[in-house]
């Protein structure tokens, strides 16, 4: 009886050890089937997306051979981290309270080198430049198309989330090597995104006397947005023990977040050339355009899932060490319309979706104190 009881306690501890990744909170948490306290930490390598910035074209280039190339903003994947702590309680240690925090950033850089005097670059982001859609559009005032031009865009996503959850673990009534968990608690998430774009080149145009003039043009654009929400989270998880040390764990979760968001677009263009129908600072030869969304209500439904392979090594003093690695995803379905960046004179209409996605691979270590 004592041997069977100890074996059951170990298997249950194995489930605790390999339940919860910090993201959706379902893979339980680390472990403690003796002392109660546990800590966890891990590294994650993943990507963030808003179905907007990462799908936006910032320029087109035209060659003398007639080739047209579209250039897209491309944020890359980066390393992040997750940390957590918790406490198990109850007569059978079948409940716990956990707190986890996850931080992930994604940055990217896209560049177009100088097109030369015969190559043309078309600015796809500016809300100031214009294009008269003439066959000789390069020679018309407007500034959208330039020669001897280059462009670059630095983009970023910043994501962080915190979860305060309580889990209840129970044995499957059908499969002896399978255990389940259900949980609920609070989730808070902050998501920041943005980019900085810069264009440098020469704007060429015809004067009323049909004289060809060339003048430098510099355009700088900064865009940023911030989202924050907090709300309830629920979910379920499962653990399948393959042997004494190895198990497969997974979970699904759902949250409803409520909070706020704001955004801003700031553009400054400098040239001695003419931008029709647009006010300018005659002394500085500068044009500017600003658009902002003041702090307003933001709500989002969040669906998350994890799957991992986990291993736990128990020690004679009652402590244990665990490792798990796997895949994680979270989908944020914002209940707001896509954001539109649009001035009254430019044909560059930009739309940023408000749907976010987090996808990553992770490896996490845990230790029972």
Overview of this protein structure:
Helices cover 4% and strands 63% of the residues. With 369 residues, it is mostly beta strands. The strands form 2 sheets. It has a 10-stranded antiparallel barrel with strand order 1-4-5-7-8-9-10-11-12-15. It has a two-stranded antiparallel ribbon with strand order 13-14. Residues 1-34 and 133-138 have low confidence and may be disordered.
Please bin the fraction of helical residues.
under 10%
What separation lies between the terminal Cα atoms? 27 Å
Structural class: mainly beta
> How many strand units?
15
Average pLDDT number? 84
The largest sheet is:
10 strands, antiparallel, barrel
Radius of gyration: 27 Å
Numbering strands along the chain, what is their spatial order in the largest sheet?
1-4-5-7-8-9-10-11-12-15
Note the run of SSEs as H and E.
HEEEEEEEEEEEEEEE
Low-confidence spans: pLDDT under 50, at least 5 residues? Answer: 1-34, 133-138
| Overall body shape | elongated
Beta-strand percentage?
over 45%
Alpha plus pi helix count: 1
Search tags:
disordered N terminus; ten-stranded antiparallel β-barrel; 4% helix; 369 residues; 1 helix; mainly beta
Could you give the topology of this structure?
Blueprint: H1 2-17, E1 37-49, E2 57-62, E3 68-72, E4 78-89, E5 95-112, E6 120-123, E7 145-171, E8 178-206, E9 212-241, E10 246-271, E11 286-314, E12 320-334, E13 339-341, E14 350-352, E15 355-368
Antiparallel strand pairs: 1-4, 1-15, 2-3, 2-6, 4-5, 5-7, 6-7, 7-8, 8-9, 9-10, 10-11, 11-12, 12-15, 13-14
């Amino acid at each position: 009886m004592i041997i069977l009881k100890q074996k059951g306690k170990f298997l249950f501890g194995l489930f605790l050890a390999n339940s919860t990744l910090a993201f959706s909170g379902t893979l339980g948490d680390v472990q403690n089937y003796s002392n109660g306290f546990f800590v966890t930490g891990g590294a994650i390598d993943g990507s963030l997306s808003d179905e907007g910035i990462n799908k936006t074209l910032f320029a087109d280039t035209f060659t003398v051979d007639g080739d047209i190339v579209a250039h897209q903003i491309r944020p890359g994947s980066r390393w992040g981290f997750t940390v957590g702590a918790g406490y198990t309680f109850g007569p059978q240690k079948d409940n716990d309270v956990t707190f986890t925090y996850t931080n992930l950033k994604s940055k990217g850089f896209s560049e177009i080198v100088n097109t030369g005097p015969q190559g043309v670059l078309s600015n796809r982001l500016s809300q100031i430049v214009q294009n008269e859609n003439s066959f000789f559009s390069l020679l018309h005032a407007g500034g959208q198309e330039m020669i001897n031009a280059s462009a670059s865009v630095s983009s970023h996503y910043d994501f962080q989330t915190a979860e305060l959850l309580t889990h209840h673990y129970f044995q499957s009534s059908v499969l002896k090597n399978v255990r389940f968990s259900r949980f609920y608690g609070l989730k808070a998430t902050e998501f920041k995104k943005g980019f900085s774009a810069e264009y440098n080149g020469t704007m060429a145009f015809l004067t009323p006397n049909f004289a060809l003039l060339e003048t430098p043009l510099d355009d700088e654009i900064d865009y940023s947005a911030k989202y924050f929400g907090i709300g309830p989270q629920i979910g379920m998880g499962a653990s399948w023990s393959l042997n004494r040390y190895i198990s497969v764990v997974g979970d699904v979760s759902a949250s409803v977040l409520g909070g706020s968001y704001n955004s801003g677009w700031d553009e400054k263009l400098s040239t001695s050339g003419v931008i029709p129908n647009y006010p300018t600072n005659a002394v500085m030869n500068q044009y500017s355009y600003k658009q902002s969304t003041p702090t307003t209500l933001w709500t989002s439904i969040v669906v998350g899932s994890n799957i991992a392979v986990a291993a736990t090594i128990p020690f004679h003093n009652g402590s244990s060490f665990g490792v798990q690695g796997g895949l994680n995803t979270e989908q944020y379905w914002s209940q707001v319309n896509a954001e539109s960046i649009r001035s009254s004179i430019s044909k560059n209409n930009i739309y940023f979706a408000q749907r976010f996605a987090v996808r990553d691979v992770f490896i996490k270590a845990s230790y029972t104190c």
